[in-house]
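Hello, quick one for you while I still have it in my head. My current little project is about how a certain protein chain folds up. You're getting the sequence in one-letter code plus the fold written as C-alpha cells. Would you mind checking whether the C-alpha cells look sensible for this chain? Here's the protein in full, and shout if anything looks odd to you:
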Amino acid sequence: MKVLLALLAASSLLVSGCAAVGKDACAGTTTYTVTPTSVTLDHTAPPPGNQQQFIATSVTTYPKGCSIAIPEYILSPYVTTWSSSDTVNAPIDSTAGPTTNGVATCKGATTGPVTLTALSVGDAKATLVCK
C-alpha cells in the first residue's frame, strides 16, 4: 500500500509540472522587441510621409504547468525613452502618448542605417534609413 501511495504521489508531481517543483521554476522569460525592425523613409516627403512610429514591446512566457493567474504569455506595449544614433537627421520622440512615443522623423538624408534604441525595454533596437 505504501508503495502504491508513493507511486501515485510521484506521478502527480510529474503531471502537475512546474507548479510541483516550486515557484522559482515558474519564473517567466521576457523578450523585448521593437517593430518595425527596419524602415526606409524619404526625408523630402511632408509629414507623415517622412515619419514612422516604432513600438517597443515585451513578451513574457511561462513554462507550461505553472500555476499562475495569467496567460502563458503576456504582450505589453511600452511607453519608453528612445535614443537615436543620428539626432540631427533622424530624431525619435520619447513623449508619452499613443501618437507621439516612438515616432521617428527623417529631417535629412542619412549616410547609412540609424540605430533607434528603446532604452527602458532591454535596449531593443530598430534601424531607420532616411533617403
